[in-house]
Write a structure and sequence with these properties.
Structural class: alpha/beta
Largest sheet: 5 strands, mixed
Radius of gyration: 24 Å
Helix content: 40-55%
Order of helices and strands: HHHHHHEEEHEHEHHH
Distance between the termini: 59 Å
Number of strands: 5
Number of domains: 2
Number of helices: 11
CATH topology of the largest domain: Nucleotidyltransferase, domain 5
Strand content: 5-15%
């Protein structure tokens, strides 16, 4: 382990000073250097480079199991415990999610819709159930509100909108984007919490115009909309919680890129057997 540290830092510091700091005899280190490296150690070095590359390309968010899955999927066959050991040597740790907080329910302008979803989060086809929610992102200019529409089948974000104001126009814009892109058949379930914007006459009117069915979580029960809540946790853990955006415009650009270029296209999802949402949709074969 100490020899590996010396190897890593020898281009920036003298070997003698590194040996002195790490309490390694200079002669012993060079005797080690003269030994022919084993096949295993050479494989470990190459594997560490693969692990580091994956860690960087996935925004430092992959744990050991996801890293191992992706390595094997790409043809780099190795053991799960070996990956965990080499991650430790590389001092690689995944970003940790913040503690989940339960939010209070808002007041309604319309009676709450029934819970049609009933936590049945596994869906067998696209455009059968969408879930929606709103979160806030902090910037130096003030709060930025983000509304999403997520298709439960492949966990793909099919609609989103951002604005500094949180009124009914925000989730309506996200819903219209989703509807324009997907053009679902009437009867699709749109599940939300009991937030006031989702209970507004404007939002419910847009659903009715398109033949979409409103569904709402039970009052104060965040777990009824757990997939949308979990997606926001992913966004904040992998992107926004680690950044203070100087402007809302910069935040919008970064979040848009995260959704369209990374999450939908590339991010492996445990529920999807470590495929990305778009990979799952490409594999889908509609019934005859």
């Amino acid at each position: 382990m100490k020899y590996a540290v010396i190897e890593e830092h020898s281009k920036r510091h003298s070997v003698r000073s590194l040996c002195r700091v790490l309490d390694v005899k200079y002669s012993t280190y060079y005797a080690f250097r003269r030994r022919p490296s084993s096949m295993r150690s050479r494989e470990d070095l190459a594997l560490r480079q693969h692990i580091r590359s994956l860690h960087d390309s996935h925004r430092h968010a992959l744990g050991a199991v996801k890293t191992w899955r992706l390595l094997n999927a790409s043809g780099v066959v190795c053991g799960k415990h070996r990956v965990a050991r080499l991650r430790k040597i590389e001092a690689i740790e995944a970003k940790r999610k913040a503690k989940f907080r339960v939010m209070k329910a808002h007041q309604h302008t319309e009676p709450p819709a029934p819970d049609l979803l009933k936590r049945a989060f596994t869906v067998t086809a696209p455009n059968k159930v969408w879930v929606s929610d709103i979160t806030t992102i902090h910037t130096s200019e003030g709060w930025l509100h983000l509304a999403i529409v997520l298709d439960l089948f492949a966990r793909r974000i099919v609609g989103w909108a951002m604005n500094q104001c949180q009124d009914a126009s925000l989730p309506i814009a996200a819903l219209r984007m989703a509807y324009a892109q997907r053009k679902p058949e009437p009867g699709l379930i749109c599940h939300t919490d009991q937030g006031s914007v989702y209970g507004s006459k404007l939002y419910r009117g847009v659903l009715d115009e398109r033949g979409l069915r409103a569904s709402m979580s039970r009052r104060g029960n965040c777990h009824d909309n757990a997939v949308a809540e979990s997606w926001f946790s992913t966004l904040k853990n992998e992107l926004t919680r680690h950044t203070m955006y100087p402007t809302r415009a910069i935040a919008i650009a970064e979040i848009s890129s995260f959704i369209e270029l990374y999450y939908n296209q590339r991010r492996p999802h445990q529920t999807l057997r470590y495929l990305s949402p778009m990979e799952v949709e490409k594999k889908y074969l509609p019934p005859n």
